[in-house]
Amino acid sequence: MPPCSAPWQRWQQRLARRWQHQFDRRIERAAWPQWCLLVGRSDDPDRVAPAPERLRPILPPADRFWADPFGCWQDGQLHVFCEEYLRGTRHGRISLLVLDADLQLRGPARPVLVEDRHLSYPFLFRWDGQLYMVPETARSGCIDLYRCTAFPLHWERQYSLLTGLEAADATLFEHGGRWWLFCAIRDQRGHINESLHAFHADAPISRQWTPHAANPIVRDFARGRPGGRIFRDPAGRLLRPGQDCVPRYGHGLGLYSIDTLTPWQYRERRVWQVRASGPWRALHHLDCQGDWLIMDAQRLLTTATAAGAAPATTAVE
């Protein structure tokens, strides 16, 4: 696929998003968009065709949403770190849900990172025997690194991997003897939901990241913004989840095979795509944990339901 959509395609995308935004504003006067989690085993042995309709919804209380889940198996339990956003507040926080092997919740969500700024997309990775997190802190103008000091609740900020940029959904992975950091960036030429930038370094905890020579490597509302962990399928292909933000943010999700990635070149092709349907209004994230899949999906709640909700125990349906 070409790195950037044609000018006429971008014009069409922007027009569709503008019309959808006007329509959604009217709908959301009486309804609140709530993100929920979807968890389950993958029926696809090749892990290239996730089926969200076959996953089990994990529904938060009506006064909050859960989104951007990343999983970590420990002691036979799936620890899911996600953005938790309480309705009526200004900032999201990073919270933890623990599920057993039967996908039953082991208690309510527990906050693990709460700061005086918005936090989301808690990307997890291991390096040199340590567990690290890179949450989104876009409006702070930096990409910060946290280290787990006592699993799973205690995390300590280390330093910034990158500064001086408004970046969302930082996603790290190793390829070709280098570590790569993909993220969406708002710049003078493009919207944050369309612009995928890449950086590379010799280690994931490096303070010295080199921009890709072709940045932005993708500029397309239909696939530019990251949508979860980059992973390899059983055939060895490197697959990148990308959000489809046409006609609205998080309207769908695709998997893109990264066929060429060097410090100078980038090329990908789509191998799977899904758009929200049925009870779900949006889908925008996927974390593949071996045979397990963790996704998120958005539904609409009436404003009265959300406003009157008590902070009850976490519901699973």
Mean pLDDT: 92
Helical region count? 2
Q: What is the first-to-last residue Cα distance?
A: 39 Å
Strand content: over 45%
H/E element sequence:
HEEEEEEEEEEEEEEEEEEEEEHE
Evaluate the radius of gyration.
19 Å
- Main sheet attributes: strand count, strand direction, barrel closure: 5 strands, antiparallel
CATH architecture: 5 Propeller
How are the strands of the largest sheet arranged? 20-21-1-2-22
The geometry reads as: globular
Helix content: under 10%
Overall number of structural domains: 1
Runs in which pLDDT lies below 50 for 5 or more consecutive residues are 310-317
Number of strands: 22
Note down, in words, how this protein is organized.
The chain has about 325 residues and is mainly beta. The protein has one domain: Tachylectin-2, Chain A (5 Propeller), CATH 2.115.10. It has two helices and 22 strands. Strands 20-21-1-2-22 form a five-stranded antiparallel beta sheet. Strands 11, 12, 13, 14 and 15 form a five-stranded antiparallel beta sheet that branches. Strand 3 and strand 4 form a beta hairpin. The termini are far apart. Residues about 310-315 have low confidence and may be disordered.
Provide the descriptors you would attach to this structure in a database record:
about 325 residues; mainly beta; five-stranded antiparallel sheet; 22 strands; about 10% helix
What's the quick description here?
The chain is mainly beta.
List the helices and strands and how they pair.
Elements: H1 7-27, E1 31-41, E2 56-59, E3 64-74, E4 77-86, E5 93-99, E6 110-113, E7 120-127, E8 130-136, E9 142-150, E10 154-163, E11 166-175, E12 178-186, E13 195-201, E14 210-211, E15 218-219, E16 231-232, E17 238-244, E18 252-261, E19 266-275, E20 282-289, E21 292-302, H2 303-307, E22 315-316
Antiparallel strand pairs: 1-2, 1-21, 2-22, 3-4, 4-5, 5-6, 7-8, 8-9, 9-10, 11-12, 12-13, 13-14, 13-15, 16-17, 17-18, 18-19, 20-21
